Amino acid sequence: MLKVLQLIPTLDRSGAEKQMVMLAAGLPRDRFRVEAAALTRSGPLEADLAAAGVPTTTIGKRLKVDPFALRRLTRFLKAGRFDVVQTWIFAANAYGRVAARRAGVPVVVTAEMAVDLWKGPIERFVDRKLATYSDKLVGNSRAVVDFYAGLGVPADRLEMIHSGVADDPPPAVDPAAVRVEIGFPRDAKLALFVGRLAPQKRVADLLKVLDLLQHVQPDLRTAIVGDGPLRGSLEKLARQLELTDRVRFLGHRDDVPRLMAAADVVTLPSEYEGLPNVVLEAMIQAKPVVATAAPGTTEVVVDGVTGALAPVGSLPLLARGLRDLIRDPRRAAALGAAGRERALAEFRADAMVARFADLYERLAAAKGLAPAPAPTTG
């Protein structure tokens, strides 16, 4: 049995964090002993880990460059005698790989969850340097793998494992009541955005699209779920565009599945992604998706089959996609049903967990820690 640690910066309710919890909770307990650690701070997902029987530790990184946190993490890894450490997101990937090397952890796996165009020369140098500290760098989409190959990560250290989505039954909701609760008319058409309010997501583009639509589709209302550094400027833009009665900024919410169940369409105007969780969650709920053809998103949404895609930054085409689906509920339902079929066929959570389990055992076997697993299918 292999002892596995999942290391991530925080336990907030965001995409990578949700995938980590799904993986930690799903790894077979007859093959793995699983723990989790938050490099910086804990968060609401610690309760989900506790419910799954996964012990959690907080390292407490406080400084941007924090040698004390690196020392604490190294001591924790040595004391834990982990066979496998998997790191997630840049800070945990950097600190985790260095600490794992110092602690003598046999197998190190790095998860990259986006085509990280934000990374500058320093971050890219760190990624190239520390790639040699990872047995495998796993991208959650082909776009992510290609991005890191372009940074110079050797091909034999790269692997692709799609993010997964659980087929949980959608909450039973009264859509009209949800609209009223948000502050919208009972009979409004509802679009939903979920994500961090940061430049990557291009939420300003969405607001400009809604400005284009407010006269040609006056029944459309939009709920924006999430927070981030741009929230204040986006709320100001919404006021300038006279959208305050058509858009609600809801901040962080713990009831996203409920809001999604009430929505007519889910929208994502990003510049880049990895394999966006919100799209997978929309598809499993049979909700049509209107999104930009961003790297990563195009591997999930099939234009005209499971949703509508527009080029990044093309406001008229994004507006047309939203307008057309709002006006044609039958087509929207057909796209949503096709999306659900695709999610079940290609992005199941159990398939993601099985592939990581096999990867751990394959890498451990190469180090003499465990027998090689039998290949899985599905």
Describe the overall structure:
With 378 residues, the protein is of the alpha/beta class. It is built from 14 helices and 13 strands. The strands form 2 sheets. A 7-stranded parallel sheet has the order 3-2-1-4-5-6-7, sandwiched between helices. α2 (45-51) links the parallel β2 and β3. The longest helix has 18 residues, at 329-346. It is elongated.
Primary descriptors:
Rossmann fold, elongated, 2 domains, alpha/beta, 378 residues, six-stranded parallel beta sheet, seven-stranded parallel beta sheet, 14 helices
Structure summarized in a few sentences:
By secondary structure, the protein is an alpha/beta fold.
Strand and helix map with partners:
Elements: E1 2-8, H1 15-26, E2 32-38, H2 45-51, E3 56-58, H3 67-80, E4 84-88, H4 90-103, E5 107-112, H5 121-131, E6 136-139, H6 142-150, E7 158-160, H7 175-182, E8 189-194, H8 203-213, E9 220-225, H9 231-240, E10 247-251, H10 256-262, E11 265-268, H11 277-284, E12 289-292, E13 307-310, H12 315-327, H13 329-346, H14 349-366
Parallel strand pairs: 1-2, 1-4, 2-3, 4-5, 5-6, 6-7, 8-9, 8-11, 9-10, 11-12, 12-13
Helix pairs in contact: 3-4, 4-5, 8-12, 11-13
